[in-house]
Amino acid sequence: MDWVPLGVAALVSVLITAWGFTGPYVDTDLLAVSLRSAAVLLGAAAGFGLTDAAENTTAASPVPRWMRQWTRTLLAGAAAAAAWGVAYLSVELRLPEEHSGVFAGLPVEAAVVILTGLACTSVVRRWMNGYPAALIGSTVLLVLVAVSLMYRSEFWLWYPPSAPEWEGLHRVWAVLIPLPLLMLVIGNRENPR
Question: What is the pTM (predicted TM-score) of this model?
Answer without folding.
Answer: 0.90
